[in-house]
Each structure stands twice: as C-alpha cells, then as structure tokens.
Amino acid sequence: MEYTPLTERVRATPWPAVVWLLGVCLLVAIELGRIASGLHNIGGAVVTAAGAGYGGLADGLASGGTGGVLTAVGLLAGLWLVGLGVVTATRATVVLRVTDRIPLRSQRLLDGLAFGLCLGVVVGLAVVTGAVGVVHALGDLLQSGVARLAELPTLTARETIPNQGYQTPDGTWHGTFFGLSPALAWGLRVLLIHLYVAAWLGWLWSGYQRYRRHYRQADWTPRDDVVSRLRYHRWGQFGLLIVVLFLTMAAFAPSLGTAPANQNIYAPFSNSITYYDASLGEVTETLVGNANLETRSQGYPGENVSPMTYDRFDRFHPFGTLTNGKDLFTFLVHGARVSLLIGLLSVGASALLATVFALISAYYRGVADLILVVTGDTIMGVPRLLLLILLTVLLGDTWLGGLYNGGVLLALVLAATGWPFLWRAFRGPTLQIAEEDWVDAARSYGQSATGIMRLHMLPYLLGYLLIYSSLVLGGVILAVAGLSFLGLGITSPTPEWGRAVDLGRKFVATESWHISLIPGAMVTLVVMGFNAVGDALRDAVDPQSDSSVADASETESRGGGV
Amino acid sequence: MSDSTTADDAGRTDASNPLVTVDGLRTYYESEQLVGGKPVKAVDGVSFEIGRGETFGIVGESGCGKTTLGRSILQLEDVDEGRVSFDGTDVTTLGRRGLKEWRRDAQMVYQNPMSSINERMTVGEIVREPLEVHNWETAASRRERVQELLDRVGLRPEHYHRYPHQFSGGQRQRVGIARALALEPEFIVLDEPVSALDVSVQAKILNLLSDLQEEFGLTYMLIAHDLSVVRHICDRVGVMYLGKLMEVGPTERLFTSPQNPYTRSLLSAIPQPDPDVGADRITLRGTPPNPRDPPAGCVFSTRCPFAIRQPEHEELGDEQWAAIAQFRRMIRERASSTTLERAKQRLGMGTQFTPIREVAEDLFGSLTYPEAVEETLTRATELVADGDVTEARDLLDDEFSTVCEHESPQQHEVGNGRSSRCHRHREEYREPGDYLRDAGDYLPE
Ligand code: SF4
Prior knowledge:
The structure holds 2 protein chains of 2 kinds. Chain A is mainly α. Helix content of chain A is 71%, strand content 4%. Helices cover 39% and strands 15% of the residues of chain B. Chain B is built from 17 helices and 12 strands. In chain B, strand 4 and strand 5 form a beta hairpin. The interface between A and B is large, with 31 and 41 residues. The structure holds iron/sulfur cluster. Chain B: One of its GO terms (molecular function) is ATP binding.
C-alpha cells in the first residue's frame, strides 16, 4: 500500500466524499445569510480593532516619553514574534544565510528580528505611500459582497418564523407565524435551530466515519482510542451536551431571543411595537422603552412578569423579565455571546502564551526557564482580583478599553493574569517530553528548535492543552460573571450574566426570584459542563493520569477563583 | 563489522586515513547544585581514531561515560575541550549551518526503541522527517526513499501508515535504523542498539546492521556493555572507565591478552567459560567511585588489584594488601563526608558509621603484618577513634600511597596498534601481566 495524496484517494472513490460535501453545501445554503452576516460582523470588528490598535500605536509612539518607549518595545517584540512565525513557517533560507554569518549563539532571535523588521518596514512603507488605500478598497469590495449575501433569507431567521404579534379579543393572533401563539412560534424556532445544530454535528460525525472508512490509509491512529474512550464517558457527554447548548445559544443568539436585541435591550426608546389596547379597543403602537417600564419585575405580584408568561403587551417571556422590564431570555442568550467571546479570547491568548512559554522553558531550560518561573510566580503571587481591578481601571480609558464595551480589555487582562496557572500545569509534562529520546534524535538529524517543539513536543501537549483550556474556560466565564456582579468589567447595557444575577439579588426571596436564580443556575451549569468535558478529555487522552487530578482541580479553582 | 575470525585483521581498515579522529575530548556536566558543586567529568580527555568502514566498540560499566562520549562526538553534548575531526574537518567548531550539513553524515541509533521514536507520527513520517529537514529532492522522491528504506531494514510497505504503538521492540528498532540511514550517512553511533531487545531479536538486528554496513560502506561506533556483542561485531575496541579510555586495541587481541588492569578485571567479571580469556578469578572490588569526585591519580586506583605499591610493601600478600586498601577506602569515605553529615552523626541522626576499632578488627584480625605496617595501622585507628579522620587519612596516604594514586597515567603504546593507560607500562614497573604471574594468587594460566 503505497502512500497516495488525499486528493488521489478521493478521486479513486469519489462518492462518499461527494455525498458528504453536497450535504455540507445544503447545510450551509439554508443558513448562508446568517453565516455571511456573521463573517461581515467579524470582519467589521477586526477592522475596527485594527484601526483602534493602529491609532493607539501611533499615539503612543508620537507621545514619546516612557509611553512611547514602551510602545516601541512592544511593537518590536510583536514584530519579532511575527518574524519568528514567518521564519518557521516558510523556512526561508535567504535571511538565515545572512544571520548565520553573525557569530552568535542566539541566531534564532536574530532571524525573527530580521524578518519582523522587514515586515514592519514593508507595512510602514505601505502606510506612508498610501498603498494601504488599495487594500482598503479591496476590503470594502469584499465587505459589500458579503453584506449582500447577508441579506439572503435563512431557515432559522426571526423573519422566517416571526413570534412577535398581538392578540385581538376574538383570540386570534396577528403578525405571528401562521397565527400561532408567540410562545409556540418561538418554541418552533428554538426547536428548528437546535435541529439544525444537531444536523451539523451528525453530519460532521458521519464525515469522520466516511473518512475513516474510505480514505484514511492508517488503519489505526492514537486518536481512535481517544474517540472510543469518549464514547463511553457519560459524564463527559453530559458536559458536551451542555457546552453544545451553550455554544448554540451564543451562535444563534439573534434568532433565539424572543425579541431583537437592538429593539429590546440596546435602544428600546428608538423602537416601537404594536399591541391591542383593551381600554382603547384598538391596535396601538408604543415605544418599547415605555412598554418595558410597565413590565418590570420588582418582586411583588403587581409588578412582576414570571417565566413562561405573557406581559400586557402580548410579549412572551420564557424566563420572565428583568427589573427594568427587558426580556431575561433575550438578555441571557446575548450574554452567552459576550461570555463566550471573552472566554475564548482570554483562554486562547493565555493558552497560547502558556504553551509557547512551556515549550521554551522545557527546551532551553536554564536561564529562559528561570526567567519564566520568576515572572510566572510573581504574577501568581499578586492576588488576582487586585490585579484585575487595577488593570481594568488603569487601561479602561485607553483605546483597548473601548473595544466591545470593555470585553476585549477584560479578556486580555484575564489572559495576562491567567497564563501562569496554565503554564504551571503544562511545564511539568513538557519538561518530561523534552527529556525523551525522540527529541534528542530529532536534534541528531538537524531538526531545528522550533521544528522539534512543533513536531515532537507540541503533539504531546495538545491533550493537556484541551483539558486545561476547557477547565479554565469555565473559570473565566465564572470570573466575568463575578466581576459584573461586582459592577466591574462589562458595562451596561451590554448583557452579561453576572449583572443579571446582581440585578435580581434583592428579589431572590420574592415573586421575582427568576432574575437571579436562572442566570445563576446557568452559569453553574455551563461551568460544570466545561469541567466535565475537560475531565472526559483527560480520561480519554491520558487514561493513566490520575496524578494530575489534584493539579487540575487546583488550576480550575484558581482559574475561577476571582 | 566482521566475524571474530577476521576481526584481528587490523589491515582491513585504513589506519593512515581515519574517518573520525577524537583528540583530547572532554565533556563535563555542570553540577545541579547552585554553589559548590563539582562538575561531573563524564568524558575526560579521550583520544582515539576510527578507520573507514570499521566498527569501533566502546565498552565499560554503566555510568562510565560511554554514551556521553558517543553523543559528544555527534555534537549532541556541549564539548568542553578537544577536537573531533570528521574526514579532516574539526566538527566542534562548525557553525549552525555547517553543523546541520554535517549531521547528514553522522547519525545515531538509540538504545531504547520505546522512547527513541515519536509515537504520534506514523512510521512513514518518522523515517521521512530527516529527509524533510534537509530538503531532500522532491516530496515524491522522499516517499519513494522511505519505502525503499523500510524495505531495506525488513519492514513491509504497509507499515508506512502504521503508528509505532502496534510495533514490537525489534520492529521499532528497525524504524530507528531506517531513520538513521535516511540521509545516507557515513558514520553511525550505535548506542547499545540491542540491549533493550529480546535475545532472539538481538541477533537479527545485529545481522541487519552488519549487512547494512557491508552494503553502504558504513562506519560504526558501537557502544555496549555486553562484551559478547562487542567481541562478535567490533574490529577494534576501547575500554572506558570513569570518563577515561583505559585501553584501545583490536578486538581479538584485546580479549585474549588484555594489557590494562581494568580490562583484565572487566573481562574476568563476566562469567565466560572461555579459556582464551585470561584472569578468570580477578574480582572487581567495591563499586566505581562517584564520577563527581574521581580519584586523584589513576581513576582505577581505588579498585585496582594491580596497583603499584611502595617497594617495602611488595612482599605483602594480596589479602593483606586488599584489607589495607579497604581500610583506606573507608577512612577516605569518612573524611570526605561533609561537616553537616558529621554533625548529624553526633546528634545521632545520620547513618551510623561502624566504630573504627570494630572495622579494624574485622579487616586485620585474622592477618599478620610486618611491624612497621602494623604500627601505622594501629595509629590510624586510634586517630580515627579520637575523631581526627583527616589526619588518619594523611598518615595512611604517606605510608601507602603510590604513583597510581597521585599521577594520572599516560596512554602507552603497547604494540600491535594497542594502547593502554597504566603506569605499569612504564620502564620502572613490571607489566601487569608479569606482575600477575609473580603474584601467584591470581595466576590465570
Ligand atoms: S595505573 Fe596503577 S591503578 Fe591504574 S590501572 Fe595501572 S596499576 Fe592499576
């Protein structure tokens, strides 16, 4: 059995792949509008962030003084990292040949710097000469194309199955999907969304099975064992279910909510709804803000909208309303987005830092390791809450603090204070891996340091990475909620679960118990779900690793122990 | 590599133009302690040559530095001093790029096939990696080469996509060998290539290595502690002890008439009912000294049954001499124990040393010594009993120490392309072999 590239293997037996790809196309097609608008939003966010970042850099450099120096150093470090990445990815020989002439031990550093500087100069020139304008124009073109696609109707969109309407005295509903009650229409939409997600998951699984059966050349890989162990891990599957529900919530927030976020949460006084006013005996229009004022949950029967009830404007509230009359469910699904975004961003950043640092300290040992140990321990030594508050307040007024209502800043601060915990968990195993003979063997045939780290060390770390990341993600979600509960972090009106808990705190023992309890229970459940997934991954990836249990719980509790 | 019958044939290798020349190589490991630790002299001034197409063996007890020697030659350790010439170029001074180029020519096969290959890669990827690192031609030709190599080392083509998990030790070692061969090297360091394998597999792997050497004209450096493997395979052998090369010579001659006292002891330490092997009854006393703190003169002096004595002690019987050596060893140990240990001992927290008088009684009780010696021993015992351990040590050193204990022996040519590191090859002393015959007790033949 000779080795053949995947494309050839597919060509030999095309049908399973074709059928699978057709299925994917179908699944994409029915939600193309949503996917396009998601891309559009992400693109827009990136452009905004890049613009803000560039502005911040330019200001920093122009301001001179310590700020300028710090910015310059940061810029250089960033360029170096990027350069290092380029060197590793391309294995370009031109620059290597030049830097090889320099009789220094740390030529790697120079390579990175050389490449980074080249890149920096090119980008700088582009900015100066206005070549950036071309990029801009291209980007705009792309954006408008995507924006057009984003207008396509989708299966699960609010517009396809509308649930906002009013009931006339004869009992008929107007404006809803086929005259169904808003609760039913909304329930139908929620069901459809979850079916869609389930279809995707099932199809992906089938794709994996097809690949294994028809195209994979190895008859067994270490991952097979992991998968088969996961198949019998009930606790992990429960966790996975919750995580999937949470992810669905975040991904489909706009159409899961009973009302559009903009209408109900962000700009209630710029939007209006129609309802049947019994006293006037006719269909009238009112500002959402005014309506909200009359549907507040304040803890006594006269002023409370409980879960699974309609308010007097014929709006359905699956989780009741908040103290200010906004829909709790809509608030929560959008809050899930915020939590997830911050969680992914901060865990991604800290996992990246922790992995790179763990690889560096294990491969180079000595001084590099010592520096990292001292840095990490120093960060861990300071109470994390103090650091968080300090950094959020200090940086709150900069351009960083403006991104995503402080969400990006919060994520970065969490990452900056959180990586040592992950790094500590990785360092031990990485040190062990670096001792293995295959690492030495790779050195003996001339593999580069980065090559060794990537090919011979990172794959063994990946399991730990997944495990600890999922554990820490739960912790971060908890931390963000905790900070909002304290009135820090994400600012109003951006929905955040912790703030809902805070708002309803006074009413826990009253009619309006739902405001605190539902989001509180959800935070608990989601954190539990991520931890269960982490546990399952650990059991699956590394069945013998009972010793790391103590370690994990420590990281977990400390990760969330804000 | 050739069978033992032709191994003696030194003319096989081109001695005037060696492939590898090692000259005064030193590799020290820094101590783990932050302050006050001495470095471990893993390789301490080793010189030898390896001819083209030759199999050069390195034997020694574990911890003698033989693996470090192999790794130092391949520049996998930071060498502190000395040169390693490969085909005329000194590889210790190569830059990064030069070193990477040179690594194509010099490869290594590791001892433990369980840890020497990365289990997250398929066999194909493992063998292909060196080719990728060195940008070997095209992707297709790399794959072809891997298939060729797998076939050559006795693996099947479908193994390309297998993961090493499913492989036996022998198969894994074949993968390791294929990987080492991938870049068409000239020189391979075999670090105990079969010691981790089943006996039944060992012979197969050794035969494979032998065939490969013939086919590709490889030069091997075989590191082993199994003397029978070395004898079976190597053209020449170096015997290492505590970082020093004690004796070098053609295999058969070295095995049949060892020159160096350590080689004799080592050969007699293995139960080998071979009439050729001399000195069956020499036993190695004690354990090797801590490499962090090696003896001052000859590294073997603390255990050497041939150690040179001062003339007035020549007539002491071997048993008597051994008892004195043992006594001095113990006192040295006590003298070098740290202040902390001694303090602990006073407080009854440390491991208790046996009272010195009991030790002396044990060692010397059944023996009789000439008066002068007797007196020195008694005085030393009293000194230790009074707590003056260092003074006792100095006294004993004055009385008994010899050239073996304070002067490191040179490498002496002992004929037939052999060299041995021992003072006894000097004019003024008797050769180890002669000495042995006279001593009577050890008489092997
Ligand atoms: S020098 Fe002395 S101690 Fe060393 S091997 Fe020769 S006789 Fe033995």
